[in-house]
Design a protein that fits this description.
19 helices, globular, six-stranded mixed sheet, alpha+beta, Cytochrome Bc1 Complex, Chain A, domain 1, 500 residues, 16% strand
């Protein structure tokens, strides 16, 4: 049997396997086992018992992200990812009373630095340098009472795996996996982080974030381009913020502003906790009331009401660097809750996801003018109206302009031609398979339940997406392509290579 025929048969077998697996998976059975509890203070607890192994996964999602950063403190949502496991008044310190005195001194010195900087051109650089030395000395004095990473060490000693945190434009997540018999330990320690936040090592950590910015943005041509692309795409909506923050804001973060941000957004009514694993839901609820019920109730923060105005002209960013060329374009699309989003996801799959997509077959395989292509729907977030993006990495001796011309041809194709039925079936099968893969582990389920609650306001959407996917037709995909992929309203960002 020739290799081409073998590959074809293998693709057919795999497609049939994906289709049969997706069809056989009983989403309803899983959904019906999820127990939802709302504490009196507004905190939501989602519990899914799975007794396959004596382990449990926890995901705590705060419905706050980079999009909520206040003016002058862009990047402060991301800061809390760094502050996540610094400890509490009892954990992470040998003497909190003495440590807090030095933290107060740090804040006073930092206030003087900010006051001097606010003078603008009249600011005395020598004064600032001297104050920064004093701030470093105060931080060193506070450090003598710090037990570095004690929070994480306790977790590790008790069998925790995967302790981490992450920040997006739409939400912030804290997660860990534990042996099932450590449920109450997690409840006690996690709730204490929110009840008694201690932002220790604050001024040292902002320097860590500054270095992170240098590495991921200022020293990365791709990072620069992405930041410029987002800023150019959104002129009004705070999606235009840089997630990590500009260097000037990072270097001027102060602890009082951060605590104010915490008190506004890290309130029970803005938190969702998903617990998935070998647990009894009623016991989880009892312990949640005991520990998380201690958090004082507060109003849920308001949703952002700023609406990005319609983009009526093409915008373009060109960045010249000693790096491989890169082409990126984006079109404005609705938020995740919009009825058109499933069709836009299908369009992204058909146009630019995987080796069978239109862009890959045309630009990479046939014309060989690109080494990589991609399309995606929902960037840089999806809680609010966002972007449908297309990426192409030109191959050697080929240009962004060549790739752009071919991308435009493929966009025109999806606007005029219906997706073949077989391709539509494969797109749906892949989407269903992705849902199944996301529900294959305790951690995956916990993530999806908690994040769905934050982004779309309803954890049931994790399972309802199956019906939304099934309802998409080739006509829907063609319609959304015509409605949203407007070349005159796109933003283009190009990385152009210069001589090395």
């Amino acid at each position: 049997m020739n290799r081409k025929l073998m590959r074809m048969e293998l693709m057919i077998v795999l497609s049939l396997f994906v289709l049969s697996t997706a069809s056989a998976f009983d989403f309803t059975q899983v959904e019906n086992k999820v127990k939802e509890y709302d504490l009196d203070n507004g905190l939501k607890i989602l519990v899914l018992p799975r007794h396959d192994a004596p382990v449990v996964s926890f995901a705590t999602v705060a419905n706050v992200g980079g999009v909520d950063d206040p003016k002058g403190a862009n990047g402060i949502a991301h800061l809390f990812e760094h502050m996540a496991f610094k400890g509490t008044r009892d954990i992470g310190t040998t003497d909190f009373k003495k440590e807090s005195k030095w933290m107060t001194e740090e804040d006073k010195i930092n206030d003087r630095i900010i006051a001097e900087k606010e003078k603008g051109l009249r600011a005395d650089s020598a004064t600032i340098t001297n104050l920064e030395k004093q701030l470093q000395s105060a931080s060193d004095s506070a450090s003598q009472y710090i037990k570095v990473n004690e929070f994480g060490e306790i977790y590790n000693r008790e069998g925790a795996v995967g302790l981490n945190a992450g920040t997006s434009y739409d939400f912030t997540i804290y997660h860990v996996n534990f042996p099932a018999n450590r449920l109450e330990l997690w409840m006690a320690m996690e709730s204490d982080r929110f009840l008694n936040p201690v932002l220790r090592e604050f001024y040292k950590e902002r320097q860590v974030i500054a270095e992170e910015r240098r590495m991921s943005r200022e020293s990365s041509p791709q990072g620069k381009l992405q930041e410029e692309f987002i800023a150019e795409s959104f002129v009004s909506h705070p999606y235009h913020n840089t997630l990590i923050g500009p260097m000037s804001d990072i270097q001027n973060f102060d602890r009082n502003t951060a605590l104010g941000f915490f008190k506004k957004y890290y309130v029970p009514s803005n938190l969702t906790i998903a617990v998935v694993g070998d647990v009894d839901p009623e016991n989880v609820y009892i312990l949640a009331k005991k520990y998380f019920g201690r958090l004082p109730a507060a109003p849920k923060p308001e949703r952002i009401l700023t609406v990005e105005p319609q983009q009526t002209a093409e915008r373009k960013v060109i960045l010249k660097e000693k790096a491989q060329p890169l082409y990126l374009c984006g079109f404005h699309i609705p938020e995740e809750n919009h009825p058109d989003k499933p069709a836009l996801d299908a369009l992204a799959d058909y146009l630019g996801q995987g080796r069978t997509s239109l862009l890959y077959k045309d630009l990479v395989k046939d014309k060989q003018i690109a080494v990589q292509t991609m399309a995606f729907a929902g960037f840089p977030g999806s809680k609010y109206p966002s972007l449908f993006g297309i990426v192409a990495v030109p191959s050697k001796d080929h240009t962004n302009a060549e790739n752009e011309a071919e991308i435009e041809k493929q966009i025109e194709k999806v606007k005029t031609d219906l997706i073949p039925d077989e391709d539509m079936k494969r797109i749906k099968a892949r989407a269903k398979a992705n849902l199944i893969n996301g529900l294959s582990s305790n951690e995956g389920i916990a993530f999806q339940l908690a994040i769905s609650t934050a982004v779309v306001g309803d954890w049931h959407r994790v399972f309802d997406d199956l019906e939304r996917i099934d309802a998409v037709t080739p006509e829907d995909v063609k319609r959304v392509a015509n409605e949203y992929l407007n070349l005159d309203g796109r933003t283009v960002a190009e990385l152009e290579s210069i001589d090395k």
